[in-house]
Design brief:
The chain is α/β, with parallel strands linked by helices. It has 2 domains: 196 residues, 2-enoyl-CoA Hydratase, Chain A, domain 1; 47 residues, Orthogonal Bundle (Lyase 2-enoyl-coa Hydratase, Chain  A, domain 2). Helix 4 runs parallel beside helix 5, helix 5 runs antiparallel to helix 6 and helix 9 packs antiparallel against helix 10. The longest helix is centred in the middle third of the chain and has 20 residues.
């Protein structure tokens, strides 16, 4: 178990802005600004980015779960912070940092699961869309409501438009309406919706994380990287690229072990090589 905090945590805050705990190959990052619905302040984003970089280098971690403390997952950017410092420099820093954080989630070698309860709005919805998988409570709600306050969700649009069909993304962006978890599931924004209480959401998320963590870490890294590279390619180029990935993957020690274990009807023993 471990906990980390950004050094810029306000002095009147008893808890760190970000919590981390590890176990059984799974890292948990908990956004920890519950009174602000885990709004993404600069300090919080810096803390998340630092932990993502540390997790990416940690061979013991095979899966990352991102969750929020309190009543919701994440309400997006800290609008009060953006209002308090109207300088272009601060605004550029804020959105550049957010973009780098989201890209770090996608680029992380480990698969990432968003565990969502309450609201996930604007950059919070962007974070869900940036994760590889998402499990949501039945009462979770998702939205890109920036248009309602005169600030179109342009950066959240990048992740959202890559996670859900175009017309559904445009409806969310143009209306600013919140959508319920079952509709987010139908759109493909989340993988699973869990009825019941917080314990049920935790159980479903932990089960999914454990199932992914049971695989070869090297194969997971290879597959995740290949997925995001090929998805942007023309069809023929994607097949050429992934055929090469398959050939390389066949040379892994874990592939030899996995195929052997399958043929011998036993459980594979992964080495990460």
């Amino acid at each position: 178990m471990s906990a980390t905090a950004d050094t810029s945590t306000p002095p009147d805050t008893a808890e760190p802005l970000l919590l981390r705990r590890d176990g059984a190959g799974v890292a948990r990052l908990t956004l920890n600004r519950p009174k602000a619905y885990n709004a993404l302040s600069v300090a919080l984003m810096e803390a998340v980015l630092a932990e993502l970089q540390a997790i990416d280098r940690d061979p013991a971690i095979k899966v990352l779960v991102i969750e929020g403390a309190g009543k919701g997952f994440c309400a997006g950017h800290d609008l009060r912070e953006l209002k308090d410092d109207p300088s272009t420099t601060f605004r550029e820093r804020t959105f550049d940092l957010c973009s780098r954080m989201m890209q770090a989630v996608v680029g992380l070698r480990q698969p990432t699961i968003a565990k969502v309860h309450g609201i996930a709005t604007a950059a919070g919805c962007q974070l869900v869309a940036s994760c590889d998988l998402a499990v949501a409570a039945a009462d979770a709600r998702f939205g890109t409501p920036g248009v309602n306050i005169g600030l179109f969700c342009s950066t959240p649009m990048v992740a959202l438009s890559r996670a859900v069909p175009r017309k559904q993304a445009m409806e969310m962006l143009l209306t600013g309406d919140m959508i319920p978890a079952d509709r987010a599931l139908a759109h493909g924004l989340v993988n699973r919706v869990v009825p019941g209480d917080a314990a049920a959401l935790e159980e479903e998320t932990a089960t999914l994380a454990a199932k992914v963590a049971d695989k070869s870490s090297k194969v997971l890294k290879t597959g995740k990287e290949a997925f995001y590279r090929q998805i942007e390619m023309p069809l023929a180029e994607a097949y050429d690229y992934t055929a090469g990935v398959m050939v390389e993957n066949m040379g892994y020690r874990d592939a030899d072990e996995g195929i052997g274990a399958f043929l011998e009807k036993r459980k594979p023993v992964w080495t990460g090589e």
